[in-house]
Design brief:
Low-confidence stretches: none
CATH architecture of the largest domain: 3-Layer(aba) Sandwich
Distance between the termini: 66 Å
Number of domains: 3
Mean pLDDT: 94
Structural class: alpha/beta
Radius of gyration: 22 Å
CATH topology of the largest domain: Rossmann fold
Helix content: 25-40%
Strand order of the largest sheet: 16-15-14-17-18-20-19
């Protein structure tokens, strides 16, 4: 018997609006022969005993992540159907088989009705990252569904969940190949015709920040003749695009020595030796304290300052200081690309914070573009929290 999660009176309202999360405070009791294991499939019922959803049970503030609002079996056919549906979206976007872009996101959690799961494609390798116990316990079924969908086009599937599954679940997760293998640590992929070395085994996230693909293209559009500073550069994605757009000079800054080495490597991969690029392994926030008016394009793409709402106040102060430093020193006529990847930060709050930074800097600022994540990171219309990436492109007089 599938364990039954019964909700308190009135707590089904968000589910009737098809929101995919059930919080622990909404649960009145669980009817089961024994305590359900974390990650188990459970059915959710209203106070009146009406079935409403089926999903993965977990311990924590989110008690159930909804997989379906139907009483359907979560079997291999179901997994194949969900993966195939996500694949069809990417095919519609023109990403499947695109010779100029060989890396993209196949599954984006709630955006693809698979909460707790991320799958990125790098050429012929799929990288799986599970953020919930239920998805981690289902990883072999997920791998089989990917193989069934792609056939011979995928030769390896790598599980990189050890750092993303809940630590208190004591899963002892170890990263490794679910299918196939490769004899190299990294591979070169293409994004909008540019080359990037991606290491899914040792790199951050799944190896590359795919979600900035379209925003990097916009940097290329504006970079001609500019002196560009790319802070929090990681593997130098924005730096490569700036140089490809004809930048006069590019400087990449990151606190990680390994990151700036990767940025240098990606620059050489695309432009050879002698390119007008410098890199510094220093704290980006400190570096921005005194840059003068050297740069007329600055990119601020920091890691998430606010992982959750409890630290939101401090995070917004951090964003304000960071943007004020850049806005106060950028050359007149300069362009600032500024981002927040914190889910807890709404686009309205981010824009207000950047407005405050502009006021502190005392500069005349125009908004040229308001940016978000690309279409292969879709937002479930019933789950607005999925709109995590916010960005502004500013013209500064």
């Amino acid at each position: 018997m599938i364990p039954q999660v019964h909700l308190r009176r009135g707590k089904e309202e968000s589910l009737l609006r098809r929101h995919p999360w059930i919080f622990s405070g909404a649960v009145e009791y669980i009817k089961s022969e024994e305590e359900p294991a974390e990650g188990a499939v459970v059915d959710v019922y209203t106070k009146h005993g009406d079935f409403i959803a089926r999903g993965h049970y977990q311990i924590g503030s989110i008690a159930v992540r909804v997989l379906t609002f139907e009483q359907e079996e979560i079997d291999s056919a179901w997994w194949c159907g969900r993966v195939r549906s996500a694949y069809e979206v990417r095919r519609t976007l023109g990403l499947v088989g695109d010779k100029a872009t060989t890396c993209y996101r196949l599954i984006h959690g709630e955006g693809d009705s698979l909460p707790g799961l991320v799958v990125d494609i790098y050429g012929s390798t799929a990288v799986v990252q599970c953020h919930s116990v239920g998805m981690y316990r289902s990883r072999q079924a997920i791998a089989e569904a990917i193989r069934a969908t792609y056939g011979d086009a995928i030769t390896a599937i790598y599980d990189k969940s050890s750092q993303t599954v809940p630590y208190n679940a004591h899963l002892n997760a170890v990263d490794g190949y679910l299918y196939g293998s490769t004899d190299h640590e990294s591979a070169v992929v293409l994004e909008n015709g540019l080359k990037f070395s991606v290491n899914w085994e040792k790199g951050q996230k799944t190896g590359f920040f795919i979600d900035q693909r379209q925003n990097r293209e916009l940097v290329r559009h504006y970079a001609a003749g500019r002196t560009v500073l790319n802070t929090f550069c990681y593997t130098g994605g924005f730096s490569v695009y700036a140089m490809a757009g004809g930048a006069a000079e590019v400087c990449s800054v990151d606190s990680s020595e390994r990151a700036v080495q990767l940025a240098d490597e990606n620059m050489r991969l695309n432009f050879g030796e002698g390119v007008r690029h410098s890199s510094l392994a220093v704290d980006a926030v400190e570096y921005l304290k005194d840059i003068g008016d050297r740069y007329d394009m600055i990119i601020l793409d920091p890691p998430a300052f606010a992982k959750h709402h409890k630290v939101l106040g401090n995070a917004m102060q951090g964003y304000k200081r960071l943007n004020a430093r850049a806005l106060s020193q950028i050359k007149s006529g300069g362009i600032l690309f500024t981002f927040s990847c914190s889910q807890a930060v709404s686009k309205e709050l981010f824009r207000t914070t950047v407005f405050s930074a502009a006021a502190i800097a005392g500069r005349k600022v125009r908004i040229l573009h308001q940016l978000t994540q690309p279409a292969d990171h879709p937002i479930n219309i019933y789950h607005p929290e999925g709109e995590y990436l916010k960005g502004l492109v500013l013209y500064v007089e």
